[in-house]
Amino acid sequence: MLELLIILVCASILVSGILAIALPNLLAAMVSGGLASLFAAVSFLLLAAPDVAMAEAAIGSGLATFIFLYAIRKTGSGKEGP
Known about the structure:
This protein has helices at about 1-20, 25-45, 50-75.
């Protein structure tokens, strides 16, 4: 049962990563990338590595996503020109 759950979470990581590449909207793509990082944290937790899961959730899913979203907002959501 645990193996099936791990496979499901890993498939979710792949789907979120593909969506992050395929989505034309930068904001939606960054949220999808953060979701992939959150699924990675869940997979680390299922694999009995809670310290790595906590670091991934805090830095990968939380802080990095926040910094990228802030940068997208400051640059005008990826639009060209002034």
